[in-house]
Specification:
By secondary structure, the chain is mostly beta strands. 11% of the residues lie in helices and 53% in strands. The protein is rod-shaped, with a radius of gyration of 35 Å.
């Protein structure tokens, strides 16, 4: 008894998030009809499927099976050649088996995920955030950040200005935000702005943020100041009247 198998093609390209397929031609070299089980070996097995997974073949006949790979867009799958094996095993005699090896060429991609803490900063002159950026792609990225606000009301700086992030890793940026015009008094004003992350290859990721600008002199402080002034005036008047009365 025996079995033979061939892959067509032996190497196939795939973009993470897409589907790639290869054909497996299985030939029964045994003297009688037999069933055969097919399975995928290697790190790509969780994202591979075989259709049909079992075939029954007459002696010297050939059956064609299709293997589909669906590699996800995640950092764990590194770009480049990823080996796999297709195992073909006899149903009547498990000792009759063959493994054909191939390779899936994974295309590189970069994807960024940003998280801001806190989402809203507060201050009279300056607000601070920490921006955590994770590379969820499968190749290194050179990440930089910039910000924009309605009417260009805010000045936003990032420390560092850019940094390299490996696949699956995260790095932090310190974010400093300042209003272009300081408010002397009044209630707090909410000013939204948008942070745009660049991966250096043309891809971007937007992270919304908010700065709450507070007046240099708060409403309560202004009321207290007025009361102090009125109190000082009243005291001065009382002292003056007392002097005239004497």
């Amino acid at each position: 008894m025996g079995v033979a198998a061939a892959l067509e093609p032996m190497e196939v390209k795939a973009r993470p998030g897409s589907v790639a397929q290869v054909r497996v031609r299985v030939r029964n070299d045994g003297p009688k009809a037999d069933g055969f089980f097919l399975s995928i070996l290697g790190p790509l097995a969780p994202w591979a499927s075989v259709e049909p997974p079992t075939v029954r073949i007459a002696p010297t006949d050939v059956a064609e099976v299709r293997v589909s790979f669906r590699p996800p867009r995640q950092a764990g799958l590194v770009a480049g050649a990823q080996p796999f094996g297709v195992s073909v095993r006899s149903a009547s005699d498990p000792g009759v088996a063959v493994v054909q090896e191939g390779a899936l060429q994974l295309s590189p991609f970069v994807a960024l995920a940003g998280e801001l803490e806190p989402r809203m900063s507060r201050g009279r002159r300056t607000g601070w955030h920490t921006l955590s950026v994770r590379n969820v792609g499968n190749e290194p990225a050179r990440v930089s950040a910039r910000a924009s606000s309605p009417d260009d009301a805010l000045r936003v700086a990032f420390e560092p200005a850019e940094q390299g992030i490996a696949p699956g890793e995260a790095r932090s940026f310190r974010v400093r935000v300042r209003p272009r015009r300081l408010r002397k008094r009044g209630a707090p004003v909410t000013m939204p702005y948008l942070i745009e992350l660049s991966d250096g290859l043309g891809g971007t990721e937007a992270v919304p943020a908010v700065f709450e600008g507070r007046a240099l002199i708060s409403g309560w402080a202004l009321v207290l100041l007025v009361l102090l002034v009125l109190g000082a005036v009243a005291l001065a008047a009382a002292v003056t009247l007392g002097a005239f009365g004497a």
